[in-house]
Structure formats: structure tokens, C-alpha cells
Fold:
Amino acid sequence: MKMKAAQISKPGGDWELVEREIPEPGAGQVRVKVEACGVCHSDVVVKEGMWPGLQFPRVPGHEVAGRIDAIGGNVTGWSKGQRVGVGWHGGHCFVCEQCRRGDFAMCVNRKVTGVDFDGGYAEYMIAPAAALALIPEELPAEEAGPFMCAGVTVYNALRNSGARAGDVVAVHGIGGLGHLGVQYARQMGFKTVAVGRGKDKEELAKKLGAHHYIDSGSGDAATELQKLGGANVILATAPNSQAISALVDGLAAGGKLVMPAAPTDPLTINPMSLFLQRRSVLGWYSGTAKDSQDTLEFSALTGVHPMIEKYPLSRVAEAYEQMHSGKVRFRVVLTISS
Structure:
């Protein structure tokens, strides 16, 4: 039996639509019949060969939604036909020091879906059972896919930020991550402030749930945040080091600037801004499969939805370019099968 897949055969290579043998799951694995897969900006590490030790050819894709199609040996708790998602976190070793502490997200031997093994730009994929998240029945596959990376990244960062209901939480950037971050912040009970560049984003930000909108292009965003009492948490989703650095002074005393997105340039922050107000800056790794499942369940419960553009697998090159150019509003999803 054959399946269709989109692969990259060399760093910087073109997309190749190929036919492959449908793979069989081994011990501890399941086979997923893919229904939808998000196209994430992190897929650039496969397209351009930027991941250390990356082996080609590789099928990318770590925002996977589908159904279990076959089950390998030594897998318990999962059954054929279940709706499952597979995200960035593609499994952990269970034996390193971090795993022994139960901190599977920080496993030193963790695997990445679509990087260390073939991902969801295909009709079928093999996934470790430890990487599976159960998808609620009310969530369509094309929405569940983006929750497996973009969704869990911001949801998990916010719920672990220390912010409490009623606190001022600012979401910087109204894009692929930020448009979800605003929705989650509102649904978690935070006084939600959206920070974007341009007055044109205000209407959308308010529609997504922001109580306030700050246009960083027409004034100093940090000053405007201080007028609201200072932000207890700033979720920096736009990977712009200069813009992120400028937000630190908008934090309240003891406030945290949390980065779930990775800018390529160093931050430039005055240490005085940190220690005089006991502020902090931290990064946040997306999360494990259980974190993804929590994200899916919270999204279904509260009515959080990604804004998506759908493309068939046959148009993968066009879909990737739409994402990479920044033209998408706001997540690209490949529809594989129904």
C-alpha cells in the first residue's frame, strides 16, 4: 500500500510530492491517519536544514490531527479510531535526570516531530504513544492541528506565568501565536491588553477579546502599559528583539516578560529595569502531549478558535510560502484526508 507525502531531500531543497510505502508502527508506537497538519514557522528548520543532525529526506509537520490507524506492541491506553494530535514534543526518554523528576518537557533526549522522525505532511505517520494528545470530538481536525504547537505554546506559557485572574496581561503581536494568546488571556480571566503595530489591528484585537489595544507604532507601548498599572505578564509572541526589549519597562513590579517565540537577535535590556522592580524575562518551551491535550480541551470548553487558511497537500509549496511570507491570517493548514 502506498501513501502520498511531501518531503524535503536536502537543505534548501524544493518540496517533493512523493509516494511511499505506508509505514508500520513498532513497539511503543501508533500509526496515525493524518486528517490535517498545520504549517508552522518552525518547519523552516527542516526546509533549510538548520537543525543539527537532521537526516534527509524528511517529511515535516508537527501540528498533526488525525485518527489512530494501527497500534504497535507495548502500547496501552490507546485504541484504533481515536482522534489524536501530535505536536512539536515528539517523545522523551523516561530515564534522564529531568524525566526522573517528571519534567518530560525538559528531557535531554527529547524528540521533535517532523524533525527527528517524519511528521504530518503525509497521509500517514508513525508517532510514539507518549506524543499523543486526545482530540475532543467537537474540535474539527483543521482547528486541532494549530493547537498542537501554536496553541499549546501560548496557552501553556500563560497558565504557567503566575498571572492570576484580574491581572493585567499584555499580548505582544497579533499573529499566528498572538491571535490565540489574546483569546486565551481573555478566557483565563486576565485584563487583556493587545499590543500591535498599526491602528488597523485594533478592531480584530478587540474582537478576539482584548480589553485594551496599544498601537506601538504611534507611541511608547511601555508607557501606555504603565498607565494601566503595569503588566503583571507580557507574552511576547512577535519575534522582534528590539520591540520585545522595549516592553520591559511596561512591566509592573515583579512582572514577567514571557517569550514563547524565538527572535534571532539578542535582546538589549537595561539590567536596572529588571532588578530595581524585581522583573524577569524567561523563555517558554511548548509542552508535552498532556499539555497539548489540556490546550485542546480548554479551547473546546471556552470557544477559542484559530484563524486558518486551508490548502490541500498537493499545494504544499504554495501553503509554505504563504506562511513564510507572513501573508497568512493567521495559520496555514494542510488538509490531508477526511
Observations:
- The radius of gyration is 20 Å.
- Residues 141-159 form the longest helix (19 residues).
